[in-house]
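User: For a reading group we're discussing how well predicted structures match intuition. Take 2,5-didehydrogluconate reductase. Before you show the prediction, I'll give you the sequence so everyone sees exactly what went in.
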Amino acid sequence: MEKTVKLNNGVEMPQIGMGVWKTNPDDTADLVRTAAANGYTLFDTAKQYGNESGVGQGLQEAIKESGKKRDDFFLTTKIFNGDQGDYDKLRAAFNQQLQDLQTDYVDLLLLHWPVFGKYNESWRALEGILKDGQARAIGVCNFDVDHLTDLIDHAQVMPAINQIEFNPFIHQPDTVAFCQGNKIQLEAWSPLGNGRALANSVINRIAKEKGKSPAQVILRWELQQGFVVIPKSSHPDRMRANRDLDGFSLTADEMEAIAELDEEKHSIWYDKYKWSGNPNGVDDYIAKPNEF
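Assistant: Thanks. Here is the predicted 3D structure of 2,5-didehydrogluconate reductase, as structure tokens, for the group to look at:
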């Protein structure tokens, strides 16, 4: 049976899913269809990725091929930063996202980044989307303790998820502790450290001892901490391996050995962007076809 976590509003969410960040829009439908054929039901996309239409098409193909229903899949997308701050604008933009995804609801809707001066009004719009049944759960991405504290002070609905960069090289302990203390489920983006962690000697030693791949060891390390993980692969064998995480666990010493790899350096962070309130930042963008 698929392992799930229960969000703070009672919604059950698969603990292992497929991310599509940096997936070429032309290839996304095939990736989703192939992943679904290999057991994946959770798919994570965003307007900023420029491939929501591919996810929607792939999901429709998967439903047709498998005989499953839309309700058998768990679909996550995110609000684009340029759509934040105005209630009506955000809701209109999200309605277009639903059309691109070929669905009338998503299972999880996230604010992609904490846009300076706008995320509280954006959250009010997400609360409206939740109330109207266009999302089963709502949450945030990349919010630190200060952002979360401010959001909660203004919110009617507690975020169900905080999706953050988390892997053997970055742990964000203050944010993790805050979320765990407030029953906000943690989800790891870039759970394999953009692939860099796969070559680490400590992880490879543990993998050899366990008879597992480095990716399986890393994902097991994250699952044992209660995270939802969304690794990406276009290869069916690796797709299956990334879900095959039962039947082994890491010892306390092995968990600590991986924890000691922490460098606490973000690969991407919001301070680079103007919408963060940083006047020296750069503008946000939506990925264009064939950009990757």
